[in-house]
Structure formats: C-alpha cells, structure tokens
Amino acid sequence: MPSAITHAVVGLSSGLAVSQGSAPKRFWVLSMICAMLPDLDVLTFKFGIAYASFWGHRGFFHSIFFAVLLGGIIATLFFRKEGVLSKSWLFYFLYFSVVASTHGILDTLTNGGLGIALLSPFDTERYFFPATPIYVSPLSVKAFISGRGLAVLKNEILWVWCPAIFMVIIGKLNYTHSAYKKH
So where are the chain's domains? Predict the structure, then answer.
C-alpha cells in the first residue's frame, strides 16, 4: 500500500483539482479521511482476522462498492443541508466516492501483498494492475522512519505526488479557462 501520507496527498490534491475557490474545512479533512480510511482494516489483524479473508486487509474496505457507500455516508452526514439528491449533494456524493476509491486503485499499483478486492462483495478475488511501480509501504511507524520508508516516499513522489500535482494544475487551468470564456 502507498503510505498514509501519500493517500492524504491524493485526497488533498483531488480537492484542489475540483474546488473552485474556498471550500469548507470539513471538505478538506473529509477528503484526506476518505483517501486514507480503507487502511483502518489493518486493525482486523488485532482481532485475528486473516489477511486474505473478506474483512481482512485490502479486502472489502478497499473495494469500489465500499467507496460508494462511504461517499454516500459522508455526503449525507456532513452535507445534508445541501438537500439529499440535490445537485450539490450529488457532487459531494460522487466526489467522496471517487476519492475513497483512489485508495484501492492506488494499492493495485503496489508491488506486494495479496492484491486488492476491488470488486468486493460481488467478486472477492484480489487484483493487481499489470504494472506495479509503487513500493509497498511498511505498516509500522518504526519501519517507516527507516531507509526503506525513505525509499518508499521517494518512489511515491515520482509515481503518485507528481501526477497528483499535475492533476491539480490541469484542474486549475480548466477552471481558469472556463472562467475566462465567460467574460
């Protein structure tokens, strides 16, 4: 899996790419949470749940289905004043669903583990993309602040942070271009 730091960067850069001006603080915090939350499934190890099980690490909680559920919950709990099913609520629902789905998708690009159950609960097979250029991040803080952790961060900067920055620039250019055309 990419590091929690990199998942947070993806959440923030997604927000920067789509926001048009200011967004409420909860938007930014929830963007990071949605991008990082699936890795809370590492807690299942503490309960004796096997890595390869449905509820195990990189299982159901890394699926697109879970991401859509999470997007709906976040939009309903934190943006209900927008009016459920309004255009604004639908934006938040879709946005947070996509941000949450980036977690599992990024993990399919890593070079270790058992794969990701992206299509769970409909298909519990675990997948990797054909190319896996992202190094698997250590799970412990101690291992992360080692030479291996530094190598992981350097690798993530190349394969995730740079494309994320590019996405933000394209999003801002698109917004600037569309605002310019209105004048």
Answer: 4-181
